[in-house]
Design brief:
Ubiquitin-like (UB roll); 72 residues; 5-stranded mixed beta sheet; mainly beta
Length: 72
Amino acid sequence: MPVEEIELTVVVLRRGARTVKLSKGAKVEDAIKALGLNPVEYVAVLDGRIVPDDEPIESGTTLKLIPVVSGG
C-alpha cells in the first residue's frame, strides 16, 4: 500500500521558500530535517503562531522558519 504524502511550503527567513513532501502525520521537526537544517537553530511559525517541533503539520500549509539569534 502506498504511503500517503503531504505537501507544504517551507519559508526559511533570508533563504527563500521550498515545497516539501513528507509522509502523512509528519511534524514540524520532520520538515526542518528534510531541508537538512537543525531544528534547534530555528523557531517554527504556523498560521501566525509559534509552534513546537512536535507540532503536526497538514498538507497545503505554510511553515515559516526563523533562525534563532544569540550572542553576548
